[in-house]
């Protein structure tokens, strides 16, 4: 016994592929009157991997403008760097403030 099947299937749909890029977030550092500038430079070099020159430039921007974006990352990385910054600063007795916000 054999079953003959003549099925003609036509797919006439266009499948749309939509790639959504993950959103990026800025880590913003704020100026205060207690945290020394050399500490901010060190944090920028150690946690955010800035060069000495870049870290000094960003530190001066924070000092003169009150705040600056110190890095832009995917959310989880931005949150981690923010937490590392705050923890290290508090461990050294500095009230350095950091905020994460969508780019």
Looking at this protein, list some descriptive labels.
3 helices, Ribosomal Protein L30, Chain: A, 3-stranded antiparallel beta sheet, elongated, alpha+beta, 20% strand
Sequence-ordered SSE layout with sheet pairings:
Elements: E1 24-30, H1 37-46, H2 52-65, E2 67-74, H3 75-91, E3 97-102
What does this protein structure show overall?
With 103 residues, the chain is an alpha+beta fold. 40% of the residues lie in helices and 20% in strands. The protein has one domain: Ribosomal Protein L30, Chain: A, CATH 3.30.1390.10. The protein is built from three helices and three strands. A three-stranded antiparallel beta sheet has the order 2-1-3. It is elongated, with a radius of gyration of 25 Å. It starts with 23 loop residues before the first strand and ends with a strand.
What is the total domain count?
1
Q: Please describe the biggest sheet, giving its number of strands, its sense, and whether it closes into a barrel.
A: 3 strands, antiparallel
Give the SSE string: EHHEHE
**Counted beta strands:** 3
CA radius of gyration is 25 Å
CATH class: Alpha Beta
The outline comes out as elongated
Strand composition percent: 15-25%
- Provide the low-confidence segments as ranges: none
Q: What is the CA–CA distance across the termini?
A: 67 Å
- Average pLDDT, to the nearest integer? 91
CATH fold-level name:
Ribosomal Protein L30, Chain: A
Q: Could you give me the name of the CATH homologous superfamily? A: Ribosomal protein L7/L12, C-terminal domain/Adaptor protein ClpS
| Count, helices | 3
SS-based class: alpha+beta
- So, CATH architecture? 2-Layer Sandwich
- Please give the order of strands in the largest beta sheet: 2-1-3
Fraction of residues in H or I helices: 25-40%
């Amino acid at each position: 016994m054999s079953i003959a099947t003549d099925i003609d299937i036509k797919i006439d749909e266009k499948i749309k592929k939509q790639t959504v890029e993950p959103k990026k977030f800025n880590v913003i550092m704020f100026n205060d009157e207690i945290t020394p500038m050399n500490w901010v430079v060190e944090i920028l070099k150690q946690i955010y991997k800035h060069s000495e020159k870049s870290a000094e430039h960003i530190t001066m921007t924070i000092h003169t403008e009150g705040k600056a974006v110190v890095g832009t990352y995917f959310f989880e990385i931005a949150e981690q760097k923010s937490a590392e910054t705050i923890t290290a600063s508090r461990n050294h007795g500095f009230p350095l403030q950091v905020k994460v916000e969508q780019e």
